[in-house]
Give the backbone structure.
Amino acid sequence: MPTHLPPGVSQPLAVIFDFDDTLANSFPTRVAALQRCLSDQLERPISSVEATRTINSAPYIDDQLLWMLGDDPAIPSLVQAYRHHYYHPERAPLEAFEGIRDALSALERQRVSLALVTSRYRTGAAGNPQWSVVHELERMGLSEWFAAIVGFEDTAGHKPSPEPFLLGCQLLGVPPARVLAVGTPPSTLWEHGKREL
């Protein structure tokens, strides 16, 4: 944590992290899973560029496939196939970005509370506990640092709504004004949650 903060900014009592592309370098694995499910299910190979564009089109896999394929009745089975490939038990654990473990350790030493707020399922998509962010964190060896985890199923509103972040603050027992959110574009949070956060 910086020792000098901008004027008017209080030392945070807690930090809320996002998972994908913040803690975990999951993007290459998501691209590969999308390519594999489309190739296997639809016999439609796609390039990594097309897969990247599709993943960047929306936050959730079903919406990404809707963007790519339109209102295709195969989307529910494709979502299941994607999850099967992405969460395959033989897949290597995701890699944490360089410096993440050191940062979490430093925050812990400073007694800063940590939470994870993610668009992934906390307890497991489709009732499968291995298809969960908790399982991913355990495989990566990161679960011990987080006092609270908020997943897709925990709130009615989803990012970029501030609702998941507000629940994370509540679970930590820290007022939102004293929490630093890492991983969500500030402009998005501001537009959707400037009255709540």
The first helix runs from residue 27 to 42. The domain at 14-25+94-193 is CATH 3.40.50.1000 (Rossmann fold).
